[in-house]
């Protein structure tokens, strides 16, 4: 489902319309509520006014009748009692002739004798008569509604008599029909009298004659609740009307009587609707006007934004100049806003993007070169070499692959530093480029390895080229630290497709050839032999796999070789030696395992395992009373690792073993590359109480510089100088000089490969402190040297 798209102008317009619409609805509702409140207030005032006018009208009628009664008092002053009937009759006749009030009858009540005279149509209910005859002081009402046959209003007035006869009361009966018709009700209003029955039905007592039938129909749809509380709006023949009523308290009826008024409210409601309609029209007009203003105000800016959006793809196509021209022509205006700021910002951004693209292009070219070429020699690297060879193999372009592996290149870096090593690599690459044809694929595939692919050549020709490479590299020399380093190399040769059909296969077999060359004494050429391929490759994979999993498979074992103190003629410590057990439970030297472990990065793990097992053996020995020290070898990589040194320190703390029980043996190759780090790690180990021995001293490059700067405790003289001292005077002189130097520096000396008594005696004569070799003792398992059961028994005897 595609997303709906709505432009910014449409969103702004919709948002504005929404806000205005909500505001409009709110204002109309507010106005409507106000008008309705005013309407209701006005109607309440009308109703209150109508009720007030009605009550006022009754008070006026009463006042007029009281005035009429009072005006007749002069007639009674000169007449005797027997003349009273004639006087009242004359008063009645004058009243009928001269007043516009619809008086139907009068009744004269003597305060002593009761009802005295009656004139006109007389029909009073019992309750009305009872009210008329009551003492005026006991009755507060001045009038009463009486409906025996038809409804009349009886109004009481007082006639003052002269002398002692007291006061007469005259009661006027006025026809309600005619009296209420004279009530000046407002136009559109009608009134009637209604009685509420016990069953809540309504009975009409009086209504205007012209509207009596309409009122009768109206009462059919009403009930007592409507009369009591009123009805705000209902439909009648008059249209929309309202009904309100109030109870008539002074009545002779047994049931409640209400005076009701029906008002026509069509005009007011029409005015209210017209006001709402006018408000709605005004609001809609304002809404459209505001929308038009917004569209008019935003259209130029939105058109500029649209043109800007249309031009943005130019940036993706790197058309920066055209993009800037289009935006600059779009920005020339007198009144500017955010759209112009957007244009200016995008123009600046285009300049930045253009500069960035140039940088990225340059950087991409640089990265492409770095990804495919060696920075030191400018030759293709392994990645590019692999890609090209893979393509050649795919295209069946046969040839021979030569792998050139420099001999002893690590010593150049260790002795004279990486600067000398880098210079040798540059000279080697230059020599190879001069020797090989220009179209030959030559690459540096690792630190000291180069690879060559001779397309379309035979193995015989490749062997000739390899021999020329060895001869030429022999002429490469690099000055180092008090030494001139010369280059030499092993060259392994494989042919495609005879020896492999893929890059990895060819490289693996070329590596096997190089390993065979090193075993043959280095500086030679080895061509791949198919009959040895499976064995050599399987052996290589076997040791790599074993280095990865030897600990988990429980294939490692520790042996111990005694070291004799020549002055005390006593074995004081043992060197910890690693052995590897094969599938047939035969033990082997760890040489191949260590080489594989160094290659696949597992040497740290194996070294830590040796340290842990040796310390565990030390714990067992100490518990059983054996206090022989142990000498543990550390590889160069482990000795240079901060994590390994820290882990060794934690092992001593967790096992609570004194550091002076352990000697760590390291080689010069481990110490020389970073003398500052080597000194720091030696001091950290010595801070634990451990002693440090420099192993294989005298072979390779034998730097006495390390003796001066590093705090060793022991120097282990390499066996190549020890074996022939009985026959080679030069070796004896070297050992004598070495012992003298060690004594001057405070170091103890240890001679390796001591295999006869005569050899040992000669070493003692030369001042060598310790001897190690088969004459002193062959390496063996721990139980061979430390019999724990017997030791426990001896300790038990000593305790007794």
Please tag this protein with its features.
Alpha-Beta Plaits, 5-stranded antiparallel β-sheet, 28 helices, 3 domains, 800 residues, alpha+beta, 52% helix, 8-stranded mixed barrel, disordered C terminus, elongated, TIM Barrel
Description:
- With 800 residues, the protein is an alpha+beta fold.
- The chain folds into three domains: 90-269, no CATH class; 375-528, 2-Layer Sandwich (Alpha-Beta Plaits), CATH 3.30.70.270; 549-794, TIM Barrel, CATH 3.20.20.450.
- It is built from 28 helices and 26 strands.
- The strands form five sheets. It has an eight-stranded mixed β-barrel with strand order 18-19-21-22-23-24-25-26, surrounded by four helices. Strands 2-1-5-4-3 form a five-stranded antiparallel beta sheet, with helices on both faces.
- β8 and β9 (239-248) form a beta hairpin.
- It is elongated.
- The chain starts with 7 loop residues before the first helix and ends with a helix.
- One of its GO terms (molecular function) is cyclic-guanylate-specific phosphodiesterase activity.
In a nutshell, what does this entry contain?
The protein has 800 residues and is of the alpha+beta class. It contains 28 helices and 26 strands.
């Amino acid at each position: 489902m595609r997303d709906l798209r709505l432009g910014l102008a449409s969103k702004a317009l919709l948002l504005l319309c929404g806000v205005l619409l909500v505001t409009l609805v709110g204002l109309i509702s507010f106005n409507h509520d106000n008008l309705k409140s005013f309407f209701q207030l006005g109607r309440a005032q009308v109703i209150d006014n109508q009720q007030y006018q009605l009550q006022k009208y009754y008070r006026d009628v009463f006042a007029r009748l009281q005035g009429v009664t009072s005006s007749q008092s002069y007639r009674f002053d000169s007449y005797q009692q027997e003349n009273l009937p004639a006087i009242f009759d004359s008063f009645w006749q004058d009243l009928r002739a001269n007043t516009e009030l619809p008086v139907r009858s009068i009744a004269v009540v003597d305060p002593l004798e009761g009802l005295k005279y009656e004139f006109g149509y007389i029909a009073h209910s019992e309750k009305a008569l009872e009210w008329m005859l009551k003492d005026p002081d006991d009755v507060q009402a001045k009038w009463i509604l009486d409906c025996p046959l038809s409804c009349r209003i009886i109004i009481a007035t007082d006639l003052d008599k002269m002398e002692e006869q007291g006061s007469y009361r005259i009661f006027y009966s006025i026809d309600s029909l005619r009296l209420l018709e004279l009530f000046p009700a407002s136009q559109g209003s009608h009134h009637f009298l209604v009685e509420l029955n016990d069953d809540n039905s309504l009975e009409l007592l009086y209504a205007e004659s012209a509207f009596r039938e309409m009122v009768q129909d109206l009462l059919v749809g009403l009930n007592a609740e409507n009369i009591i509380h009123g009805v705000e709006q209902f439909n009648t023949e008059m249209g929309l009307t309202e009904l309100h009523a109030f109870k008539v308290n002074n009545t002779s009826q047994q049931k409640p009587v209400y005076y009701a008024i029906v008002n026509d409210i069509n005009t007011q409601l029409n005015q209210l609707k017209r006001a709402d309609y006018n408000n709605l029209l005004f609001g809609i007009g304002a809404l459209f006007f505001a929308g038009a203003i917004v569209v008019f105000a935003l259209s130029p800016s939105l058109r500029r934004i649209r043109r800007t959006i249309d031009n943005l793809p130019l940036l993706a196509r790197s058309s920066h100049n055209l993009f800037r021209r289009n935006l600059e022509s779009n920005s020339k205006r007198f009144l500017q806003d955010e759209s112009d700021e957007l244009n200016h910002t995008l123009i600046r951004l285009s300049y930045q993007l253009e500069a960035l693209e140039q940088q990225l292009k340059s950087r991409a070219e640089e990265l492409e070169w770095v990804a495919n070429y060696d920075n030191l020699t400018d030759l293709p690297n392994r990645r590019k070499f692999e890609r090209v060879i893979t393509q050649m193999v795919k295209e069946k372009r046969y040839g021979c692959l030569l792998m050139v592996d420099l001999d002893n290149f690590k010593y150049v870096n260790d002795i004279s530093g990486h600067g000398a090593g880098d210079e040798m690599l540059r000279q080697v690459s230059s020599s190879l480029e001069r020797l090989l044809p220009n179209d030959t694929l030559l690459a540096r595939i690792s630190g000291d390895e180069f690879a060559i692919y001779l397309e379309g050549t035979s193995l015989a020709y490749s062997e000739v080229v390899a021999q020329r490479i060895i001869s030429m590299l022999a002429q490469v020399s690099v000055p180092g630290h008090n030494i001139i380093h010369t280059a030499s190399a092993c060259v392994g040769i494989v042919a495609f497709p005879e020896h492999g059909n893929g890059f990895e296969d060819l490289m693996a077999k070329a590596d096997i050839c190089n390993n065979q060359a090193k075993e043959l004494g280095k500086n030679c050429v080895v061509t791949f032999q198919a009959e040895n391929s499976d064995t050599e490759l399987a052996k290589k994979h076997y040791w790599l796999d074993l280095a990865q999993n030897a600990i988990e498979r429980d294939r490692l074992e520790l042996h111990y070789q005694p070291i004799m103190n020549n002055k005390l003629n006593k074995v004081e410590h043992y060197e910890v030696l690693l052995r590897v057990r094969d599938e047939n439970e035969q033990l082997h030297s760890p040489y191949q395992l260590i080489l594989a472990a160094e290659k696949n990065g597992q040497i740290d793990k194996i070294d830590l395992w040796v340290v842990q097992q040796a310390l565990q053996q030390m714990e067992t020995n100490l518990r059983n009373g054996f206090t022989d020290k142990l000498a543990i070898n550390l590889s160069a990589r482990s000795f240079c690792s901060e994590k390994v040194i820290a882990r060794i320190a934690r092992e001593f703390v967790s096992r609570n073993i004194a550091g002076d029980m352990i000697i760590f043996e390291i080689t010069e190759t481990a110490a020389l590359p970073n003398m500052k780090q080597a000194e720091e790690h030696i001091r950290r180990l010595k801070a634990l109480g451990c002693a440090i021995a420099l192993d294989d001293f005298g072979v390779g490059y034998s730097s006495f510089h390390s003796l001066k700067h590093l705090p060793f405790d022991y120097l282990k003289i390499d066996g190549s100088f020890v074996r022939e001292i009985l026959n080679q005077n030069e070796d004896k002189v070297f050992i004598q000089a070495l012992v003298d130097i060690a004594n001057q520096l405070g170091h103890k000396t240890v001679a390796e490969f001591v295999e006869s008594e005569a050899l040992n005696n000669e070493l003692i004569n030369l001042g060598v402190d310790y001897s190690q070799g088969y004459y002193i003792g062959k390496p063996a398992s721990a139980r061979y040297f430390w019999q724990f059961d017997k030791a426990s028994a001896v300790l038990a005897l000593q305790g007794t």
